[in-house]
Design a protein that fits this description.
Catalyzes the formation of N(7)-methylguanine at position 46 (m7G46) in tRNA. It is built from 8 helices and 8 strands, in the order αβαβαβαβαβαβαβαβ. With 230 residues, it is of the alpha/beta class. The chain has a single domain (23-228), classed as Rossmann fold. It has an 8-stranded mixed beta sheet. The termini are far apart.
């Protein structure tokens, strides 16, 4: 009997570094997940059923500890937000702060964003996709792990409604150039920057403490906003 060929393992854009889970974060996952949590097993989603209304829908990929997601949702109560993050301490932290702030227009996946895009979100269902400060995988041998690659961008484009936008931000200039090249070559996406490059930080994207510290040290930040055409 011949042996089956080994299965090809997909290249991941992230490494699960769980870190220390605080009791409060674990309690939030245990008690608040039924309120805010979304599971791959229940996909595909009907966003109107999830939120109980029809409203503009934003997806944030890799929300970290949830600072930007919480701020954006609190500032836009007439819109809905879905966050995706693989690291459970960050998810637990966000759940606690959502409850404390009384923010009800956010739902959360603790899962791989690629799976969420493929399995859970209907075509044309998103008005905005945000990818803020993804891992730049700065060593050249790790560039293949970067999330922003043509297949990923095509998945995002397919989930955007016509006129919807894909907003990316990074503080690594090399990754910014890579993002610009990949998105500029993607069919069905149009760069909103007048010069075809980068845009000033949109007012809805909060500055993080990490970002402000980097700017004081002279580090740059690059924002890209591409719109789905047609």
């Amino acid at each position: 009997m011949t042996e089956a060929p080994p299965k090809h393992r997909p290249i991941r854009s992230f490494v699960r570094r769980e870190g220390r889970m605080t009791p409060a974060q674990q309690r939030a996952l245990d008690e608040l997940w039924p309120v805010y949590g979304l599971d791959l097993e229940n996909c595909p989603l009907d966003p109107e059923a999830v939120f109980g209304r029809r409203a503009p829908l934003t997806l944030e990929i890799g929300f970290g500890m949830g600072d930007a997601l919480l701020a954006m949702a609190a500032a836009a109560p007439d819109a809905d937000f879905i966050g995706v993050e693989v690291h459970r301490p960050g998810v637990g932290s966000l759940l606690n702060r959502l409850q404390a702030a009384g923010v009800t227009n956010v739902r959360v996946f603790c899962a791989d964003a690629v799976e969420v895009l493929e399995r859970c979100l209907p075509a044309g269902s998103l008005d905005r996709v945000c990818l803020f400060f993804p891992d730049p995988w700065h060593k050249k041998r790790h560039h293949k792990r970067r999330l922003v690659q043509p297949p990923f961008v095509e998945r995002v484009r397919g989930r955007l409604a016509p006129g919807g936008v894909f907003h990316l931000a990074t503080d690594w200039e090399d990754y910014a150039r890579h993002m610009l090249e990949v998105l500029s070559r993607s069919e069905g996406l149009r760069n909103t920057a007048p010069d075809g490059r980068f845009v000033p930080r949109p007012s809805y994207r909060p500055e993080t403490k990490f970002e402000r510290r980097g700017m004081r040290l002279g580090h740059g930040v690059w924002d890209l906003v591409f719109e789905r055409a047609g």
